[in-house]
Specification:
The chain is mainly alpha-helical. The chain is built from twelve helices and no strands. The termini are far apart.
Length: about 210
């Protein structure tokens, strides 16, 4: 199963970066695959046995994280490695260490939009909404086609019931990608909540 997941992860990651005309390193591919294998395996195991958390899964999959730490100890100025390690650590629940490595990513690559998006997700889980808003907004300013950041920002505004802000963010994202189904859904829900029923149905049925 893990071999199949790794192949799918490689394909999706390559396709996404190719669509955005971005180079990909072998290290990025491998680290992304480790994250995807962990998340997919965790979901599958919890579906099979919801009452048990598979504590053995993390060490089984994340031996490479230890090796990556060793590599960073030798050569610290490697933003992609810090970013991917941060994602792995966050998926494993090590929020403080994940934050450190997201911040290290930005030390070595201040324009790394995905790192700001990762920090936004982290801050949202801590309910630090001002920091989350700022991180997602910075990610969008750096990469206007990073649609995960628009979606995450909308969901964070939904946590605080700020429907008007969701409308603005979703429309900004749809200006960049008019066919983004998630943003249409978020926009329609916000419009319904605001009582703008005709506009809400228009977005729902787009």
């Amino acid at each position: 199963m893990w071999t199949a997941l790794e192949g799918v992860s490689h394909f999706v990651y390559l396709a996404w970066n190719a669509a955005h005309d971005r180079p990909v390193t072998l290290l990025e591919l491998e680290l992304q695959a480790e994250v995807d294998k962990y998340v997919a395996s965790l979901w599958l195991l919890r579906e099979q046995n919801p009452d048990r958390f598979p504590v053995e899964l993390h060490p089984a999959l994340f031996e490479r994280a230890r090796k990556l730490r060793q590599a960073l100890a030798m050569r610290n100025a490697f933003p992609d490695a810090h970013f991917n390690l941060a994602r792995m650590l966050f998926a494993a629940g090590d929020v403080n260490d994940a934050k450190t490595h997201y911040e290290q990513t930005l030390v070595f690559s201040p324009g790394y939009a995905k790192a700001y998006n990762g920090l936004g997700i982290l801050y949202r889980t801590q309910r630090d909404y001002p920091q989350a808003y700022a991180a997602f907004e910075r990610a969008i300013r750096l990469d206007k086609r990073l649609f995960d950041a628009y979606i995450n920002l909308c969901n964070t505004y939904r946590d605080s019931c700020n429907e008007a802000a969701i409308v603005n963010v979703a429309r900004d994202g749809l200006a960049e990608d008019p066919n983004n189904a998630q943003l249409h859904q978020l926009l329609s829900e916000a419009l319904f909540t605001l009582g703008q029923l005709a506009d809400g149905w228009h977005e729902y049925e787009w």
